[in-house]
From TrEMBL:
Catalytic activity, as annotated: L-glutamyl-tRNA(Gln) + L-glutamine + ATP + H2O = L-glutaminyl-tRNA(Gln) + L-glutamate + ADP + phosphate + H(+); L-aspartyl-tRNA(Asn) + L-glutamine + ATP + H2O = L-asparaginyl-tRNA(Asn) + L-glutamate + ADP + phosphate + 2 H(+)
Annotated Asn/Gln amidotransferase domain residues: 333-480
NCBIfam families with a match to the protein in the record: gatB, PRK05477.1-2, PRK05477.1-4
Top-level taxon in the UniProt lineage: Bacteria
Gene: gatB
Keyword flag Lyase: no
Entry-linked PROSITE patterns: GATB
Species name: Veillonella absiana
Name of the protein described by the UniProt record: Aspartyl/glutamyl-tRNA(Asn/Gln) amidotransferase subunit B
Length: 482
């Protein structure tokens, strides 16, 4: 986009809460299931039924608000947001409007080495709508749509930012960090691929250096990080080009078509007064005491920024490694557990970010599902520290631990992988390798220092990787320089 224009973005992030039952009834919130089987008269909005608020939803909302530096409103209430859409069986959504549970928070994100503070306007509780099942890939290319009400009434938090975001990359970083915090809090699984974390982006452009906001369009229900970034970048470019051509941006709701890499118009964007908000008459206001807020605060876990500071300052890890390690709570907890089992933090970090991450990712698992428990990784590192196995042998051991579930000590004994540290035994192999490889020996003596690398490799091969590399180097240097 031309540097003449500045992108202005505000995000509305919706996250489903990890409660056992829905927000106003006892139906399960479990993902999946046959269509329209996780429903009852309450979440279907049948006549004569009354909602009952799930207390856990309020607790989770307070927890998220505190983690995002918000003010918790002691008096808040539910409202009816009135609109017609097939996935909304009551023709209104029970949400919060003028008195939400959380106000005035912020989240700091880092993009291209610069820290940006994104203000959070509000966080409010609401019920999710149903899900339209389209015959095509998107609503725009479908001939028909069916509706599945299983998701109707699943508790949601909507986290609304101020229009402080200035690029698709910033929006991606914001949602990524927000998702990480929500997972640390354990209030949601935040699985974007299942729709439990979704994002609506309000986008406008304005001449750089001006303060007045342009006319915004809204991209609905983006559920991938790359889609959020690309959708915002495309929409900002579309608006800027439209203005340059003498056109006018209209306030509308659009959808992101990932296959085509474009946004498509869906419908005219409603204004707030179109929703005819009014207080929900079937639910009493919510009163939250200071004692209740402090009780939730006391249960807050160590959050990503706090963990990263500790990993850098206490463990001595780099900022880069700490950023990756704290990106998910499961990986961060795995490192802590390995260190608590006796390992050096840097060594444990190297194995976690290297071989173990590769196996976890290749198997489509998380660190919480790793087939190598943290104490087993610590046990393997202890064998390396004692000189029982070398780093090369350890690479075999960690694979065997993953495949067998056995600890390192058992594998090393069963497979005869104990490192050879006996100088006499290694020296015999060294002499044999020197005798069998006259050309590399001559190359080394002629000044090619790199030739010793080939000889080291041959000794390790003959010893099946069990010779102590340090002893091998010493003995080769000794015999080659005689």
């Amino acid at each position: 986009m031309s540097s003449k224009y500045e992108t202005v973005v505000g995000l509305e992030v919706h996250t489903e809460l990890k409660t056992n039952s829905k927000i106003f009834c006892g139906c399960t919130t479990e993902f999946g299931g046959a269509q329209n089987t996780h429903v009852c008269p309450v979440c279907l909005g049948l006549p004569g039924v009354l909602p009952v608020l799930n207390k856990k939803v309020v607790e989770y909302a307070i927890k998220v608000g505190l983690a995002l530096n918000c003010e918790i409103l002691h008096f808040n209430k539910f409202d009816r947001k009135n609109y017609y859409y097939p996935d909304l069986p009551k023709n209104w959504q029970t949400s919060q409007y003028d008195l939400p549970i959380c106000l005035n928070g912020h989240l700091d994100v880092e993009v291209n080495g610069e820290t940006r503070r994104i203000r959070i306007t509000r966080i409010h509780m609401e019920e999710d709508a149903g899900k339209l099942v389209h015959s095509g890939n998107t609503i725009s290319d479908s001939n028909s749509s069916n509706v599945d009400y299983n998701r109707t009434g699943v508790p949601l938090l909507e986290i609304v930012s101020e229009p402080d975001i200035r690029s698709g990359a910033e929006a991606k970083a914001y949602v990524e960090k927000l998702r990480s915090i929500l997972q640390y809090l354990d209030v949601t699984d935040a699985r974007m691929e299942e729709g439990s974390l979704r994002c609506d982006a309000n986008i406008s452009v304005r001449l750089r250096g001006t303060e007045k906001l342009g006319t915004k369009s809204e991209i609905k229900n983006m559920n991938t990080l790359t889609g959020i970034q690309k959708g915002i970048e495309y929409e900002a470019l579309r608006q800027a080009m439209l203005i340059e051509e003498g056109g006018q941006v209209i306030q509308e709701t659009r959808t992101w078509d990932d296959a085509q890499g474009i946004t498509l118009s869906m419908r005219k964007k409603e204004a707030e007064n179109d929703y005819r908000y009014f207080p929900e008459p079937d639910l009493v206001p919510i009163i939250i005491t200071d004692e209740e807020i402090e009780a939730v605060r006391a249960e807050l876990p160590e959050l990503p920024d706090q963990k990263m500071d500790r990993f850098v300052n206490q463990y001595g890890l780099s900022v880069e490694d700490s950023t990756i390690l704290t990106s998910t709570r499961q990986m961060a907890d795995y490192l802590d557990a390995t260190v608590n089992a006796g390992s050096d933090a840097k060594t444990a970090s190297n194995w976690i970010l290297g071989d173990l991450s590769k196996m976890v990712n290749e198997n489509g698992l998380t660190f919480g599902e790793s087939k190598v428990p943290a104490e087993n990784l610590a046990g393997m590192i202890a064998l390396m520290d004692k000189g029982t196995i070398s780093g090369k042998i350890a690479k075999k051991v960690i694979v065997s631990m993953w495949e067998s579930g056995k600890d390192a000590d058992t594998i090393v004994k069963e497979e005869g992988l104990v490192q050879i540290t006996d100088t006499g035994a290694i020296e015999e192999i060294v002499k044999q390798v020197i005798a069998n490889n006259p050309q590399p020996v001559e190359d080394f003596k002629s000044g090619n220092g790199k030739a010793i690398g080939f000889l080291v490799g041959q000794v390790m091969k003959e010893s099946k990787g069990r010779a102590n590399p340090g002893v091998v180097n010493q003995l080769l240097q000794k015999h080659l320089n005689d």
